[in-house]
Known about the structure:
Blueprint: H1 2-16, H2 18-21, H3 24-32, H4 36-57, E1 61-65, E2 77-80, H5 87-94, E3 100-105, H6 114-120, E4 124-126, H7 131-146, E5 150-153, H8 174-177, E6 183-189, E7 206-211, H9 222-226, H10 228-241
Parallel strand pairs: 1-7, 2-5, 2-6, 3-4, 3-5
Antiparallel strand pairs: 6-7
Amino acid sequence: MKIIRNIPNGIKLFRSVSIFNKHLDEITRLREEGKKEEERALLADATGQWVNNVIDIFDITVNVKGRENIPMDRPCVFYANHQGYADIIVMLKAAEGKQIGFIAKDSLEKVPYFGKWIKAIHGVFIQRGDAKAALRSIQAGVNEIKDGYSMVIFPEGTRSHCHEMGEFKAGSFKLATKAKVPVVPVTIDGTYHMFEDREIITPGTTVNMIIHPPIETADLERKEAAELHTAVENIVREGLKEFE
């Protein structure tokens, strides 16, 4: 019954991707020609158009605090807690004007439209439960970052489906430390109300976000790098307290 109730809104969501896809040929051309700066600008514009359409369709309110903390002139890695599928939508809204790709679970690669979309925005798929494959995915992400593309990763590794959050996985922070780019902690609260509460796509969700000040990784000592996941987890967790 829940599947049937999700069909109308699911169709709206899938159709919305066409807004991004109309730019796909130009994105591909710029990528093939190595025009990375132009490609990043077009990706930011195309994803911005798509996400604003989705927000309008589903009447999502996104309140963002600290947007000035986003490094707009260089690549970075956003580390956010993961409450629900809508985290992708609100991250794109919060970072509007900046290209971002996502580290996504490999099962999403097979989802029609969205698997292709994740690849198009320089996202990387990661295989859970296979440490060697996960390391290869992280390295692929590092390569993207070194090419100037920013990434988002949800270091809990899975959705919490609620206000609470789990522990951040230390290995995910190699994405930033190996690329030597800033880590930007992000607190998200409320996205689970859009789907995970009842497993039904629910319009009218309000989401609150905090973009925390970036943490430089280029000159971190070994001990600081080893403790980075704990420091960022604590920052994000403290942010959640503001929404209790």
